[in-house]
Specification:
single chain; about 230 residues; alpha/beta; 6-stranded parallel sheet; 8 helices; about 25% strand
């Protein structure tokens, strides 16, 4: 997998240097930093700007690109003994998913289950999570109803985000908990809502009607911390 830009690459360098196969540099570094990188056990290659632009299809690479090990999805069954699970229902925007992964790791979520999509584009999710995906167990499951049933029978309380729900500030959060986030356009289906223990929302000021799903998710995750 190829990642690029300074922040995600340095996150991996500092936390998972063994996952880097080749580091590509399209900018000059001071001698001390270059020497440090050369001693870290992965290959370091200098490349021209033109080659870097071609590799990342003209995205903003900031002079840093890296080929890293593939991310391995986790089995959903391994999540059932955890405390705080995030379930994403029919989310397809990799930018949103990456931002959610980053927030989830920062806000104490133990694992994420992505439902309703056949495949995940891991590379852009890893990039937009700025490397936090390597710290966040992630599973891919087709049938969200089976996932919610398994979580329910394993003792989890199911909370789902919907604008018509109860203000999250007024909800008593249980220790073993699940937050379900729906897609940006459609939200949660009525069938998913029927399986929830509590529908929660963020009360808005100034008549504003909604937030981006990654922003709303971050607020809800923070308020569900125990």
């Amino acid at each position: 997998m190829l990642i690029y830009a300074k922040q995600p690459i340095y996150y991996v360098i500092n936390n998972y240097p063994n996952k880097i196969k080749t580091l590509y540099l399209a900018k000059e570094l001071d001698k001390k930093e270059y020497s440090r990188l050369m001693k870290m056990g992965f290959e370091v290659k200098r490349i021209p700007q033109e080659a870097a632009q071609k590799m990342c299809k003209n995205a903003n690479h900031q002079g840093f690109l890296a080929e890293v090990s593939e991310y391995e999805l986790h089995p959903f069954s391994s999540f059932l003994n955890k405390d705080f699970i995030l379930v994403l229902s029919n989310l397809t925007d990799v930018g949103n998913i990456g931002a959610i992964v980053r927030s989830a790791y920062a806000l104490g979520v133990d694992a994420i289950v992505v439902c309703g999509v056949k495949t995940l584009a891991i590379e852009p999710i890893l990039r937009t999570s700025t490397g936090a995906l390597f710290d966040m167990p992630l599973a891919l499951e087709q049938n969200i109803h089976d996932v919610l049933n398994d979580l329910k029978t394993s003792g989890f309380t199911l909370y789902g985000a919907d604008m018509g729900g109860k203000d999250i500030k007024d909800v008593a959060i249980k220790q073993k908990r699940v937050l379900v986030l729906g897609s940006e356009g459609e939200g949660l289906t009525s069938r998913v809502v029927s399986k929830l223990d509590e529908v929660v929302s963020i009360k808005m000021s100034h008549g504003f009607d909604s937030l981006n799903v990654s922003v709303a998710g971050a607020i809800l995750m923070d308020r569900m911390r125990i």
